[in-house]
Amino acid sequence: MPHENDAEPFPWHLGVYDAHCHPTDTMSSIESIPSMKTRVLTIMATRAEDQSLVSSVAATHSVKSADPAKWAREECIVPYRQIFLSLPNPTPFSAFLAQTRNYLAQHPLALIGEIGLDRSFRIPEAWNLAHASKRNGSLTPGGREGRRLTPFRCQPKHQKAIFKKQLELAAEYGRGVSVHGVQAHGMVYDALKELWAGHERPVLSKRERKKRGRDDPNVEAELDASNGGRNNGPKPYPPRVCLHSYSGSPANFKQYLNPAIPVELFASFSTAINLGDAVGDETPKAFEEMIKIVPDRMLLVESDLHCAGEEMDRRLEDMVRRICRIKGWGLEEGVKILGRNWRRFVFGTEP
């Protein structure tokens, strides 16, 4: 059924932000980013080959300030530093962490991602001459590109150990993280919980919070103090985490709504992953239920596409319109809410 916001012009001028995408997979599309309607892309790396490419794009196009009013037009990306599961050649993980530290130092606003856990992951077969002759030269090396999957897997225990090291690096630098979870939502939650254990926030009863005033700025400071100051100083967990293209159930997501969790959590959604075969105005009921469960302050949108340009803009507009319908927001209201959420996730504060 058509919705009233379908005919309403889309308010691109308010600032729309892609929370997770991969345009460095198709480097020829990078030159189109400054002319896109989307204001800023948060560009993910997923393998070693991406690291230098993301850094090179960031040198020209990365935002230099947390204040959008200070951005030049060519400032249109936020880079993520990747430490994912596979490497082209055996490399000590300590060396890879050291390399990533260098990138984080070079780009003070860079985040970490995407990182995560994937129970379905299987290692592709090695490149051979037949594969090499057919590969698409416009794509960044390192992808699967039609290679068959071998039976070999990366064991969940090993994945989790690496994942926690990555989260600890984000904690060390105070950076946000974009997290990938496939058939491993419980394990992702457990890994995060193991890092924040002992640092949970004290929770006031509804009666006490109402009595003291929910918006009293002194309440949070007092809660931190009553927790022995554990919310001050270095922490063993990252300050902000985005569950990218979250595909778990609403029941699974509810565990992230515990007010004792000290991490600021977000969930981003894409048409590419979350809507599957949905077309036109069709929005799956399961997706509607998911969006209704996620608090307004935690919502983000993403494209998760591997090529920048008009299709990325179109997908983001489609997702924003769908979320606004589900939430009952006007388009301008929704774009403003999503923009504030993105800035909080990326910069840790609202300018």
Automatic annotation (TrEMBL):
Q: Extract the Pfam families matched here.
A: TatD_DNase (PF01026)
Task: State the PANTHER family in the record.
Answer: CUT9-INTERACTING PROTEIN SCN1
Q: What is this protein called?
A: Metallo-dependent hydrolase
Q: Coiled coil located at which positions?
A: none
- Recorded source organism is Trematosphaeria pertusa
List the InterPro entries hit by this protein, alphabetically.
Answer: Metal_Hydrolase, Metallo-hydrolase/TatD-type, TatD-like
What are the start and end residues of every segment in region (Disordered)?
206-237
Q: Name one GO molecular function term.
A: hydrolase activity, acting on ester bonds
| Keyword list, A-Z | Hydrolase
